[in-house]
C-alpha cells in the first residue's frame, strides 16, 4: 500500500534533516529518505570531527553562484544565531577557531545527534538504506517508487547534496531530478579542493610535501590569506582550497609567500645595511620555512641562492621580491570530486524562488543545500547555507 505524507525529503544530510525537523515542528507529517545506512555522514566527518557548523560572518558575498543575490533571502531570514539557539538547547557549546568559524566543543556527533533528536521529537519518519527508483508527478502529488515501497506527497524536497566524496554516498541525483522536471543545472565542478600541477612545478612541490606557510593566494581579482600546504600532487591547505572555488582551467595563481612583510624590498635593504654578512637564506628564514627558502631560491632566483645580503644589488633584491610576492603557478587541474569538500554549480537558481527554494515552474518541488548552485567559502559557510535554505523551504511547505 502506498504511504502518503505532507512532505517527503530526499537526502538525510544537513539540509534534509534540518528541513524535516523544521517542517515537522510546524505540524507537517514528514518522511526523510536516505539511501545511506545512516543519516548525516558528512556532518560526522566535518571540521575534522568537530563540525565547523557555521560562520559568524556568513555574508552573501562569501558564496559563489551565477546569481550572487540568490542566497541573500534565506541567509538573512535564518542566521547562525538561529542554529546556535537550537544546538544550545541540546547543551552544545561552541568556540570560534579563527575568521568567524564556529566549532562544536562536543564534536560533530553531538550536532548530528541534536538534529536526529529534534527530528524524532517532532515526529519525522527517517527511512535509511532506501533508494528512489522513480519519481512521477500527477494530480498535485509526487509519487515515489523506492526500494522500500511507494510513497506519495504533495511536496518533494530534494536535499541529496552534490557529487563530492562519492565513496560517502554522494550522488548527482538532484541534477537528474532537476533535469527531469525541466530545471537547468549549472555545470557541477569540484570546489574547496586541492590543486594539481605538472612538470617543474610538481617536482618542486613534491620535494616540499608537508611544508606549510602563510600566504596570500590570488586568482584574478579574488585573494585569500591563509596557510598553503605543499603535497605530493601539488598544493593544498586553506588558502588553496578557498581559491580553488574561483579557479578555472588555464588561469594562473599569483602567490605572495611573504604577506606579513608588505614592503619586502625595504626590509631586505635595511637588514643589509645593518648586517651585510648575513646570508640571504638565514634572513628569509625569519619568515619562511628553511626547506622552502633553499628550494625556492635554487629554482627561481639561483643567483641569490648562496649570497650574503651585502653581495646583493638593489636590482637583485627587487627581482627576488617580485618572485616571492608574485610567485606565479599554473595548476593543471584539481584532485576531483574524490577530494572536494563541496561542489560548485548545481541546480540553477534561475529556476528557483530564493524565498522558498521551490521550483518556479514545478509546484511542490524544492531544492535545498549543496545541490543548489550556491557554494560557500571554507569555514562553516556551507553548513549555514544548508540550515538557511532548509529553513526557508520548510516555511513554505
Ligand atoms: P549532504 O551531502 O550533507 O547530504 C546529502 C545526503 O543525501 C547524504 O546523506 C547522501 O547520502 C544522501 N543522498 C545522496 N543521493 C541520494 C539519493 N539518490 N537518495 C537518497 N539519499 C541520497 N561544511 C561546513 O560548513 N563546515 C565544515 O566543517 C565542513 N567540513 C567538511 C568536511 C568534509 C570532508 C566534506 C566532504 C565536506 C565538509 N563540509 C563542511 C561541507 C558540508 O559537509 C556540505 O556543504 C553539507 O554537508 C551539505 O549538506 P547537504 O545536506 O546539502 O548535503
Automatic annotation (TrEMBL):
Instruction: Locate the coiled-coil region(s) and give their ranges.
Output: none
Sorted alphabetically, which Pfam families does this protein's record hold? HI0933_like, HI0933_like_1st
Q: Which residues form the RsdA/BaiN/AoA(So)-like Rossmann fold-like domain?
A: 6-395
Q: Which InterPro entries match?
A: BaiN-like, BaiN-like_dom_sf, FAD/NAD-bd_sf, RsdA/BaiN/AoA(So)-like_dom, RsdA/BaiN/AoA(So)_Rossmann
Which metal ions or organic cofactors does this protein require, according to UniProt?
A: FAD
Alphabetical list of SUPFAM superfamilies matching this protein: FAD/NAD(P)-binding domain, HI0933 insert domain-like
Q: Give the top-rank taxon of the lineage listed in the UniProt record for this protein.
A: Bacteria
**What residue stretches are annotated with the RsdA/BaiN/AoA(So)-like insert domain?**
189-342
The record's keywords, sorted A to Z, are: FAD, Flavoprotein
The name this protein carries in UniProt is: Aminoacetone oxidase family FAD-binding enzyme
Q: Which organism is it from?
A: Kordiimonas sediminis
Amino acid at each position: 500500500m502506498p504511504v502518503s505524507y505532507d512532505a517527503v525529503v530526499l537526502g538525510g544530510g544537513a539540509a534534509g534533516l534540518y528541513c524535516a525537523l523544521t517542517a515537522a515542528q510546524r505540524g507537517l507529517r514528514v518522511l526523510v529518505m536516505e539511501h545511506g545506512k545512516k543519516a548525516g555522514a558528512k556532518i560526522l566527518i566535518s571540521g575534522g570531527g568537530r563540525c565547523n557548523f557555521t560562520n559568524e560572518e556568513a555574508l552573501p558575498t562569501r558564496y559563489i553562484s551565477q546569481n550572487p543575490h540568490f542566497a541573500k533571502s534565506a541567509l538573512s531570514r535564518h542566521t547562525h544565531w538561529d542554529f546556535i539557539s537550537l544546538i544550545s538547547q541540546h547543551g552544545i557549546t561552541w568556540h570560534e577557531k579563527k575568521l568567524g568559524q564556529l566549532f562544536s566543543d562536543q564534536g560533530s556527533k553531538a550536532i548530528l545527534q541534536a538534529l536526529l533528536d529534534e527530528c524524532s521529537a517532532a515526529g519525522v519518519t527517517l527511512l535509511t538504506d532506501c533508494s528512489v527508483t522513480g519519481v512521477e508527478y500527477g494530480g498535485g502529488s509526487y509519487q515515489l517508487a523506492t526500494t522500500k515501497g511507494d510513497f506519495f506527497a504533495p511536496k518533494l524536497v530534494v536535499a541529496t547534496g552534490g557529487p563530492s566524496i562519492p565513496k560517502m554516498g554522494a550522488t548527482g541525483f538532484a541534477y537528474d531530478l532537476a533535469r527531469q522536471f525541466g530545471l537547468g543545472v549549472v555545470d557541477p565542478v569540484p570546489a574547496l579542493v586541492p590543486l594539481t600541477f605538472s612538470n617543474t612545478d610538481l617536482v618542486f612541490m613534491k620535494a616540499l610535501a608537508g611544508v606549510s606557510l602563510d600566504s596570500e593566494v590570488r586568482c584574478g581579482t579574488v585573494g585569500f590569506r591563509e596557510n598553503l600546504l605543499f603535497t605530493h600532487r601539488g598544493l593544498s591547505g586553506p588558502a588553496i582550497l578557498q581559491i580553488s572555488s574561483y579557479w578555472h582551467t588555464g588561469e594562473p595563481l599569483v602567490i605572495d609567500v611573504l604577506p606579513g612583510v608588505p614592503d619586502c624590498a625595504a626590509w631586505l635593504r635595511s637588514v643589509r645595511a645593518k648586517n651585510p654578512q648575513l646570508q640571504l637564506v638565514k634572513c628569509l628564514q625569519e619568515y619562511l620555512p628553511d626547506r622552502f627558502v633553499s628550494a625556492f631560491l635554487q629554482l627561481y632566483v639561483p643567483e641569490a641562492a648562496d649570497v650574503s645580503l651585502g653581495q646583493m644589488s638593489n636590482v637583485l633584491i627587487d627581482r627576488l621580491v617580485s618572485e616571492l610576492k608574485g610567485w606565479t603557478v599554473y595548476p593543471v587541474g584539481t584532485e576531483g570530486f574524490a577530494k572536494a569538500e563541496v561542489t560548485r554549480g548545481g541546480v540553477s537558481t534561475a529556476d528557483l524562488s530564493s524565498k522558498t527554494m521551490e521550483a518556479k515552474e514545478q509546484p511542490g518541488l524544492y531544492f535545498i543545500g549543496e545541490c543548489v548552485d550556491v557554494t560557500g567559502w571554507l569555514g562553516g559557510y556551507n553548513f549555514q547555507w544548508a540550515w538557511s535554505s532548509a529553513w526557508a523551504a520548510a516555511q513554505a511547505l
